[in-house]
Please model this.
Amino acid sequence: MFSPGKRACAHLTARVPPPVPRRHFIFVAGGKQKGSVMMVYIVVLEQGVYLALGGDPGRTTVPGSARRYSTRKGAGIALGMARRFRPFLDAYIVSMVKVVPLK
Model:
């Protein structure tokens, strides 16, 4: 069997770190840093009904009380878990921008 050697396979075995997703951005207003901007995701189960903590599954009609997820994948997993109890055929995930002020 033919073996190409170390040099020929170096490009195949090179370890390249995966790209880091940028979730935090710097919010600047008036030339001064005011805080960081972060993407958050919430799950809309029905029109005007959001996924919340507690319950089977927890539901709320107040958007400010909805459970926030830092990744879209996490929100999708939560939606899948909520669909164990009810089908929620019209459910979808909404992305929002959250500004975290500096202390």
